[in-house]
Each structure stands twice: as structure tokens, then as C-alpha cells.
Amino acid sequence: MSKTNRTPPPCPKCGSAEQVVPVVHGMPTEEGKRSAARGEVWLSGGCCIDPDAWAWYCRSCREGFGRLADERPELFRR
Ligand SMILES: [Zn+2]
Questions:
Q1: Angle value at C-alpha 25, between 55 and 51, nearest 5 degrees
Q2: Rounded to the nearest whole angstrom, what is the distance from the C-alpha of residue 21 to the centroid of ligand 1?
Q3: Span 51-68, mean pLDDT?
């Protein structure tokens, strides 16, 4: 298992932590696609990473939350 080592925070809307998965930004790898098929991650689609994009996605509310640049600063580190 090479999922993100971050534990998703509970959804601010429904409070569920089990339904919250990390959002994978940019072009997904083959592994990313498999993880998405298993419901472990959410694919944002698109080819670029937006700092204001969602960091987390609630499968229950079908809505994302969290600002990517705040939640996953390592993605923007050069
Ligand atoms: Zn929710």
C-alpha cells in the first residue's frame, strides 16, 4: 500500500471521516487510477495542479474541501 500517509480529516459537512479520500491532481498514474477504482482517492482530472483546488473529497456529500496549498504544501515545494 502506497497511499498517502496523511489521515483524511473529517468532512466539515457530514462529519464522516470514512467517506473522505485524498484528491489526486494532475494526470493520474496507473496506480492512481487503480486507487480511484477502489474508491481510495478522487481524481480531479485536468493536467495542472491548482493551489486553490480541493485537497480532500467527501464521497458522501460529493463535495471537496480544504485548500490544496494549505493541506499538501509538499506538492508546491520546489
Ligand atoms: Zn461529507
A1: 55
A2: 10
A3: 95
Rounded to the nearest angstrom, the distance between the alpha carbon of 42 and the centre of ligand 1 is 14
Please, what's the largest Cα pairwise distance for the chain? 35
Residue pLDDT, tens place only, 1-37: 444 556 889 999 999 999 999 999 888 899 999 999 9
In sequence order, what are the residues at sequence separation of 6 or more whose Cβ sits closer than 8 angstroms to the Cβ of residue 68?
Answer: 23, 25, 49, 50, 51, 52, 53, 54, 55, 75
Residue with cell 509538499: 74
- Ion ligand 1: residues, CB within 5 A, are 11, 13-14, 58, 60-61
How many beta carbons lie within 10 A of that of residue 39, not counting itself?
10
End-to-end C-alpha distance for the chain, whole angstroms: 26
| Structural element, H or E, at residue 30 | helix 30-37
- Side chain identity, residue 65: F
